[in-house]
Fold this sequence. Notes:
There is one protein chain. Helix content is 35%, strand content 24%. By secondary structure, it is α/β, with parallel strands linked by helices. The chain has two domains: 2-194 and 311-404, 3-Layer(aba) Sandwich (Aminopeptidase); 198-307, Alpha-Beta Plaits (2-Layer Sandwich), CATH 3.30.70. The strands form four sheets. The protein has an eight-stranded mixed β-sheet with strand order 1-2-4-3-5-16-6-15, sandwiched between helices. Strands 10-12-8-13 form a four-stranded antiparallel β-sheet, with helices on one face. The relative contact order is 0.18.
Amino acid sequence: MLKKEVDALQPEMLEIFKDLHQHPELGFMEHRTASIVADYLKKCNIDVKENVALTGVIGVLDSGKPGKTLMLRADMDCLAVQELSSLYYKSEYPGKMHACGHDSHVTMLLATAKILSKYKNKFTGRIKFVFQPSEEGTPSEMLDTVAKAGYTGQGGAGFMIQEGVLDDVDACIVLHVQPTLKIGTISIAKKNAAASSDVFTITITGKGGHGAQPQKAIDPVPALAELISAIHMLPTREISSLETCVISIGKVETPGSVWNAVAEKVVLSGGFRTFNQEIRTKLGQRIDELANNIAKANRCTAQIDKKTGYMPTINNEHISELIVESCQKILGKNNVIYTDVPAMTSDDCGAYLSKVPGAYFWLGIGSDENAAPLHNPNFYLAPEALSIGVIVQVNIIIDLLGKLNS
């Protein structure tokens, strides 16, 4: 019966999905998307609250029977990426693209809400459908607007929490698409689902000069080389091998300098990821110490700018198991991957799961083994994956609320 319901919704889902894909919006600017979401939920006779954390939308479906409240999150924002696909419904906005599948998350959660609105007799309690802004972080042009609205954190999840989205929530489920997994499969971590993400930028300043007379200058480049090596040694020499962490330095530059000059300054930017708050704190402290001491040893000065990113996403093991059981019934045991291996990517939904029990899992959307990854300008989501995501979500909701209320 559920498959027939979802099949009947397929044309409607495709229309919504393609429309959203053509009209991507950056974080805290998802006004068009939010309007589509709110209108759709209202037509399903779902109670709607709009303009939460600027552009967020919350829909509440009450069964009329007392019980637990289960929350599901769909993120709405796009990435600042120029789409390179040849799809007829490719992005119409230059430099903006749904390269992380958030358009599909919105589409699938809307369809899930519509189906469940017809079958309130199938569950007890309440379902909260949360359409969240800015999972990819706050765009620079929105920093002042967000700050004036009273939020200083990173990502829309924290802002939604500040606005009370979790006040009556007992558990939270988050689905995310994954092109490295084939269609018809899901993958879920038992515990560590996604890592924290913190960013640092270090500016080492010396004294510029002519490349032919380095003795009259103070060269920051040797300090840069030492610092890169020292930072890369942290995970292997100062952190236990039993811990999971990674450090990446992705950008190095000598602003305004040329090949035959001693640069005035050098700038490097990178980030580190882990699942352990103590390790997270230690890495931040040690990067500060290394930057200042190595710069001083080379007669330079260091300025360190750090941005605290997302919390790690830690699954509740009991809820992870319940999701596995639910998905195995509809997808088959061979198509449900239950793993101890964490993903080192990050998602701001870790903020939700730090306050209420829940789980984050991946829905396979890969059409072939060479599928472009997330955040790639050639990212593609096979539309047939949408119906599987809806079926998975509906089943998880019914099964999980049944367990939570038993």
